[in-house]
Amino acid sequence: MITVSIVGASGYTGRELIKILFKHPQVKIAHLTSETYKGKRISELHKGLVSFIDKKFEKLDIDKVAQDSDLVFLALPHGKSQKPVAEFLKKGKKIIDLSADYRLKDKSLYKRWYGLEHSYPRLLRRAVYGLPEIYKEEIKKSSLVANPGCYPTGVILGVAPLLAHRLGDGNSIIADAKSGVSGAGRRLDIAYHFSECHENLVPYNVGEHRHTPEIEQELSKISKKKITISFTPHLVPMDRGILSTIYVNLEGKVSIDRLRNVYKNYYRKAPFVKILPKATFPQARNVVETNFCEIGLMVDRRTKRIIIITAIDNLVKGASGQAVQNMNLMSGFRETEALL
Q1: What is the pTM of this model?
Q2: Is residue 166 located within the same domain as residue 276?
Q3: Domain check: are 204 and 306 in the same one?
Q4: Residue 275, strand partner residues
Q5: What distance in Å separates the CA atoms of residue 49 and residue 136, rounded to the nearest whole number?
Q6: Cα separations (Å) of 63 from 60, 83, 86, 91, 101?
Q7: For 244-253, what is each residue's pLDDT tens digit?
Q8: What percent of the chain has pLDDT over 90?
């Protein structure tokens, strides 16, 4: 049994964490913090949790949270996790950070894409990128895990086996991804009003989305050479889910049967990655409220490209579910505990 706290529990990822952790047989929740909603009951904001938990949001007190917790989840906005992570680590706590503050190893990239200086570059080197399907053993031994972004999770899982086996040209990757509105979080913005989103499809941050360097960093490690991709996200009128269609130029000849075998073997020990049957492709609704990533594959001989389609729930495998998966590995629990 371990005790955990969630710092920044008022957002959508905080809500999902509470729901998953509440049913975890080896976890007790100590503190749920929110600077905006401190003093309010959790169920006043997350009305669907009224049957789960009867706590109030607290103002963050690092000493108190550290004293009562074995592991701390940080679900804070980008730029707000740097200092709390450092302080919790000094107190010997295990950390899972759901922001982007510790994902990029190069502090200059962090400044370029997030417009912020990184005050703890040594901790950047210490942090383990929390994609269990690739870094499982490192996660088990880590005290600081940088939980991946939602788009990178779908794209990296889709492309990793291809690059690891040198079956595709890593610098030809085009990733076209579509996300539900919950991916933008709870913040108020006219772009996310019902009348703006409904019956609409909108590309955004074209050529400059902040998840781009994260995807390139991880794909470069896998391929052992620098990778540059084209990545375009879109907002679609659904609550949750991400569908990514990824195009990669073939390196040589490969049959669909060989490709499927490569993927199935690469993910043979990954309980949450499902390679779909031949000529079957993911749909966003099939993974909603699950920690699964479904992958469909096609070899397009006419254009000499491989087409990979992945689907995840942006709030679960793309955030809170993956964070619990990482917690399970860090704590010696079954990887799938509370997630199946």
Answers
A1: 0.95
A2: yes
A3: yes
A4: 295
A5: 31
A6: 9, 13, 13, 8, 21
A7: 999 999 998 9
A8: 88
From the list 32, 76, 150, 287, the catalytic residue is: 150
> Two tokens at 25?
């047989």
Q: Are residues 211 and 280 in the same domain?
A: yes
**Quick one: 71 and 200 in the same domain?**
no
Q: Which residues, including other chains, have CB under 8 Å from residue 146's CB and lie 6 or more apart?
A: 97, 100, 101, 102, 103, 127, 128, 129, 130
Give the separation between CA 181 and CA 184, rounded to whole angstroms: 6
Same-domain check for residues 230 and 177: yes
- The boundaries of the domain holding residue 201 are 151-314
pLDDT digits (tens, 9 = 90+) for 62-117: 999 999 999 999 999 999 999 999 999 999 999 999 999 999 999 999 999 999 99
Residue 130, classed as helix, strand or coil, is coil
Q: In the annotation, is 150 catalytic?
A: yes
Say what the alpha-carbon torsion angle 173, 318, 289, 163 is, to the nearest 10 degrees. 40
Q: Are residues 306 and 166 in the same domain?
A: yes
Domain membership of residue 131 (yes or no) is no
